[in-house]
Structure formats: C-alpha cells, structure tokens
C-alpha cells in the first residue's frame, strides 16, 4: 500500500553492482553527516544560549542551509529506496502488463520534471550568486544549490530504475 | 477551467500510483508551463519551503525513533499497565494511555503507531482481542500524538499561518485528553464482547519498580512543555533537547540503544524528514498557484455567502477538511488550505489558534479515512492485514474521535483556556 520501506539498508539493496553500492553508501554517509551536524549545532546552540547566554548569530542560517541539503539530497535517497509516500492500491489492481507500463510512464514523467527542476534550480542559483546571506557572509546560492544537485541525483536514480523496469520481465517496482 | 484541469491531473497522477510529492510537483509544473508563467517559480517555491522552524521536524522525528529503538516505548507500556491495566479491558486502556504519554514526547502519529503497535498488537492478541481490532485501536490512539504537544502538523500550521507554535501546542492539551477519554470509553464498552477482564494487578513492589524505571522517560514531556511554557525554548530547541534526551536515556539509562540502532534511527529520520519536507516543497508550489488563481478571495466569497455565522462556517470548514483528509496527506492540506481560509477566519472572528487545533484534529481523523489514510497504509504494512479489513475495523473508532472533534470545534474554551492562562 504505502510504498514499503522494507529493503533494509540501501547498501544491501544494491549489492548487484559495485558502483551502485558505493553510491548508496556515499548517499547514506552524506545524510548521516548532515543530520549529525544539525544535532551538534542544535545542542551547541542550546548550551551556549542557556548556559553561557551568548548564542551564535550564524547558527540559524547555517541550520537552514543544512536543512535544504538534507531535504533535497534526502528526497533523492527516498527515490533510491522507493520510500516516497504513494497510493498504489489502484496500480496494484491493474493487470501486470498495464501496471508495468504505467510505472514506466510515471518514471518518465518524474525524470522530465526532475530535469526541469535541475535546469530552473540552476538558473535560480546563478541569479542569486551575488546575493549575500547577512548572517553567514556567503551567497544564499550555497543553500539553494541543494535543489538542482538533489534533483540531478534523483534524476540519475530514476533513469536507473527505468532501465531496470524495462529490462526486467515486469517485476514489481513501485514508483 | 485551468484550475479544474490542474486538479484532474494531480488526482489522476496521485491515484495512478505516482508518489504524492511528484504528483503535486508535476501537475503544478504543467500548469506553470501551460499558462506561460516563468518556470523559475518552480525552483523558487520549492527552495522556500525548508524554513528554519521546520527544523523541529527532524528533531521530533528523531526523538520518536530513538525512543522506539532505545527501549523507552516498552518502558512506557509497562508504566501504563500499572496505571490502567487492572481496569476491565485493561490492555485496551493501556494502548490509549501509552499513546497519550508518547504524544507528549513525539510529534508524529506514524512514529507513535509504529512504536506502540509493534509492542502492543501482539500483546493484545495474546489477551484475546481480534487482530483487526487491536490494529484499529492502535491506529486510532496514535492520532492523539500530534494533538497533545509536541506536534509536527502544528509546527507546519504555525509556520503557514504565522501563529505562535507555543500557543498551538498548549491549545492541543485538553482536546488530546478528551480524545483519549473518548477512546477509553469506547474500548471499555467493546471489551464486554470478548470477556477479557482486567489484567492481574502487578505487585506493589513491581508497580513501584516499573514507575521508577519510567520516571526518567516521563520527565521528557515535562522538559519539553515546561521549556516552551516558560518561554525558555523555541519549538526547535525543545525538539533538539527532546532528541538529545532520548539519546541519553536510550544509551546511558536504559542501555538498550546500540550504535548500529542509533545510526539506523538517524538514517530513517533523514529519510522521513526528506519525504515530508519534499511534499511540503511541492505543495508550496501548488499553494502558490492557488494564490495566483485568487482562490483565497473565491473562498471568502463562497463561504461568507453561505453564512456569516462563525459556527456555521466552522462546521463547513470541518466538512471540507474531513473530505480533503480522505484524499490527501495532512502536510499539503495545511499548506494549501490555511492561506485560503485565514481571511475567512478574520472576517467571521474565529481565532487562528483555535482553528489550528481543530484543523489538525480533522486531519488526524483524515489519516484513518480511505482512500488516502497514512495510518491505514502504515497499520496494514505493520500487521500484514489487508487494507480493506483495516478500514472496516477502524470505522467504529471514528465515532469517539468525531465526538472529540465536535467538542473541540464548538467549545473553543477547551482549546483556548490553557494558552490564555499561560501566555495571556
């Protein structure tokens, strides 16, 4: 029903190819590092504010930047693990061949959407390259770059899944 | 015309099996390209979504995941057993009370249902409850999670409506307790059918032991609420403290949390956070189109033409939200509907804090209503019971929840008393 989240570690799910396995481990590592940094930063901020009453001025902005990366890199990870929330009961009722073509169509549409997001996201980043974030002293584009980068990774994952789906004999692959 | 086409494409994609986030994003992109709007808005609206306040989301999720992995959930179940296990239908009451305590620590219904379901459904079966009933009961009780603070949907509403998240949190306390009581009344009546009686009362010594063991965990809601109440913590800081405290409890006090489990909890938090905020990002785009099409104005005109009485308007809004809850997830509804109804609220004099709690309660009932009900999907996954049988078992539990909704809607004092008392 709900796209299952039962593949365990994605590293296990992609044992087939070495490159795929390495990419999965890297993907997991980046996400863990992002959330880990957020936790440390949050803890540090609470400590500094309540114990030493001298909060960091840049921590909110930096945390927002990390959250942007966590969201869009994590969304690509969810594509990899097929854990985006989807309503699949009608799809499951379809005959196998119809279901397979529907899934392939959805993957093509998702791929096209992701390409559009990569392109427009890049334009946005380019447009904002000189807009400075006052608290951090860096361009806001560093945070916004998460969108095109995450979408590009998600595009690669989607193409790979489409290839697998078309190459297979119609095994279940919930989009 | 263009709007109905937008809705048709979106619903077609979503019920065709495309992930919810992509169905919102793709239908919006088709609209934007179709009307000749600059497609850079797609990127702009999507990056605008992950704002600072939403940082509370990963931390509240992490707190829930760490509690489930670190043995805290089990310890709370033992404690709830001491409190209400001896009553007739003991274990059913334990389910509700555990969820009420869990609700004070985690902000997500799905995390609560996973944690309490995996411990309590097997135990309920052992006590002679049918598996479907046990599943439905856990699902219904998990809806209390985001009503009793902390609450992820309330954070999202607070951000969208520009309302104090602290006030919303406080407003949820009494409605959450009412939901719990309503479910316990229902469970107490049901239990006559299966002649399950109260469980053996634990010895005084054992009761003491369990309570002492649960004490450090029970402190967590006190820290969270106390911190927010005293104005010391922002919701995000409270969430940080909650997850660090859960980590501390699981690893050093209960000593059930291994490094491997902690990493799994972090990774699954990343994944759930991304899935949720990605939906928020694409819903943000969809919501922008609603604004561009002047939907808020249409909404005001439509509703105020029907009636200018605020109780009637509230009733209509409840019906709208219950309907939307059957086809959509809570987060996109909050993002898309809130800006549409805020002007209506202002016009007829409904407090946005009161409405926020009513809205979240509606949407939690929506997690239990088909065709789109996230808790239904999740419970079916967790127990292996087919979807339609979970639906059938859940329906009777909607009655006590709807009673709680009616009380919360038409007695605004229930919501507003605590925020007024403590925040003025």
| Element pattern of chain A in H and E | HHHHHHH
Cα(first) to Cα(last) distance of chain B is 46 Å
Number of helices of chain A: 7
Continuous helix count of chain B:
21
Low-confidence stretches of chain A at least 5 residues in length (pLDDT < 50)? Answer: 1-15
Shape of chain A: elongated
Care to count the β-strands of chain B? 0
Q: From N to C, what is the helix and strand string of chain B?
A: HHHHHHHHHHHHHHHHHHHHH
The interface involving the most residues is between: A-B, 63 and 61 residues
Average pLDDT of chain B: 90
Helix content of chain A: over 70%
Gyration radius of chain B (Cα, Å) is 21 Å
Structure description:
The complex is a heterodimer of chains A (175) and B (424). By secondary structure, chain A is mostly helical. Helices cover 70% and strands 0% of the residues of chain A. The termini of chain A are close together. Mean pLDDT of chain A is 84; it is low at 1-15. Chain B has 424 residues and is mainly alpha-helical. Chain B is globular. Chain B starts with a helix and ends with a helix. Chains A and B meet through α2, α3, α4, α5 and α7 of A and α1, α2, α3, α4 and α13 of B.
Provide key terms for this protein.
heterodimer; A: mainly alpha; 0% strand; elongated; B: mainly alpha
Layout of helices and strands, plus pairs?
The complex is a heterodimer of chains A (175) and B (424).
Chain A: H1 10-13, H2 18-50, H3 59-81, H4 89-93, H5 96-127, H6 141-144, H7 146-167
Chain B: H1 2-15, H2 20-34, H3 40-48, H4 56-69, H5 72-84, H6 90-103, H7 109-126, H8 131-142, H9 152-161, H10 165-171, H11 173-190, H12 204-229, H13 235-253, H14 259-292, H15 295-306, H16 310-327, H17 330-348, H18 352-366, H19 374-383, H20 387-410, H21 412-423
Short description:
Chain A has about 180 residues and is mostly helical.
């Amino acid at each position: 029903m709900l796209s299952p989240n039962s593949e365990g570690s994605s590293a296990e799910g992609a044992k087939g190819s070495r490159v795929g396995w390495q990419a999965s481990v890297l993907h997991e590592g980046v996400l863990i590092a992002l959330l880990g940094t957020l936790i440390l930063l949050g803890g540090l901020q609470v400590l500094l504010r309540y114990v030493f009453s001298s909060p960091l001025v840049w921590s909110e902005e930096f945390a927002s930047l990390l959250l942007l990366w966590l969201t869009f890199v994590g969304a690509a990870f969810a594509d990899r693990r097929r854990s985006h929330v989807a309503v699949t009961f009608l799809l499951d009722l379809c005959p196998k061949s119809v279901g397979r073509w529907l899934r392939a169509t959805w993957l093509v549409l998702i791929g096209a959407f992701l390409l559009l997001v990569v392109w427009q996201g890049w334009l946005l980043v380019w447009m904002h390259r000189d807009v400075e974030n006052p608290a951090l002293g860096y361009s806001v584009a560093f945070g916004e770059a998460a969108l095109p980068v995450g979408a590009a990774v998600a595009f690669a994952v989607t193409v790979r899944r489409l290839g697998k789906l078309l190459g297979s004999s119609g095994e279940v692959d919930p989009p | 015309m263009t709007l109905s086409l937008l809705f048709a494409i979106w619903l077609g994609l979503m019920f065709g099996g495309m992930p919810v986030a992509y169905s919102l994003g793709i239908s919006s992109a088709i609209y934007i390209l179709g009307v000749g709007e600059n497609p850079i808005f797609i990127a702009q609206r999507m990056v605008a979504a992950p704002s600072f306040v939403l940082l509370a989301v990963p931390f509240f999720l992490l707190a829930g995941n760490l509690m489930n992995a670190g043995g805290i959930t089990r310890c709370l179940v033992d404690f709830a057993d001491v409190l209400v296990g001896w009553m007739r239908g003991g274990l059913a009451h334990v389910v509700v009370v555990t969820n009420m305590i869990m609700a004070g620590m985690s902000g997500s219904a799905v995390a609560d249902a996973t944690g309490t379901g995996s411990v309590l459904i097997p135990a309920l079966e052992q006590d002679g409850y049918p598996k479907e009933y046990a599943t439905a009961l856990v699902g219904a009780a998990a809806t209390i999670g985001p009503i009793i603070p902390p609450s992820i949907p309330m954070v999202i509403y607070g951000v969208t409506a520009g309302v104090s998240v602290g006030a919303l949190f406080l407003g949820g306390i009494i409605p959450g307790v009412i939901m719990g009581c309503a479910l316990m009344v229902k469970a107490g009546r049901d239990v006559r059918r299966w002649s399950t009686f109260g469980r053996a009362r634990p010895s005084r010594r054992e009761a003491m032991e369990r309570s002492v063991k649960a004490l450090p965990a029970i402190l967590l809601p006190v820290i969270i609420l106390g911190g927010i109440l005293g104005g010391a913590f922002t919701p995000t800081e409270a969430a940080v403290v909650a997850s660090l405290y859960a980590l501390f409890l699981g690893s050093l006090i209960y000593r059930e949390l291994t490094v491997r489990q902690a990493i799994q909890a972090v990774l699954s938090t990343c994944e759930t956070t991304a899935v949720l905020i990605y939906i928020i990002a694409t819903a943000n785009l969809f919501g922008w189109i609603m604004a561009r099409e002047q939907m808020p104005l249409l909404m005001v005109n439509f509703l105020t033409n029907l009636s200018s009485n605020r109780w009637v308007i509230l009733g209509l809004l409840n019906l709208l939200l219950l309907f939307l809850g059957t086809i959509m997830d809570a987060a996109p509804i909050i993002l898309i509907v809130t800006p549409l109804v805020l002007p209506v609220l202002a016009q007829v004099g409904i407090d946005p804090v009161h409405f926020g709690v009513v809205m979240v309660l509606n949407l939690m009932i929506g997690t239990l209503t088909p065709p789109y009900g996230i808790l239904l999907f999740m419970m079916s996954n967790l127990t292996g019971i087919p979807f339609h049988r979970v639906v059938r078992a859940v329906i009777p539990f909607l009655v006590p929840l709807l009673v709680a909704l009616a009380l919360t809607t038409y007695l605004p004092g229930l919501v507003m008393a605590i925020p007024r008392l403590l925040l003025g």
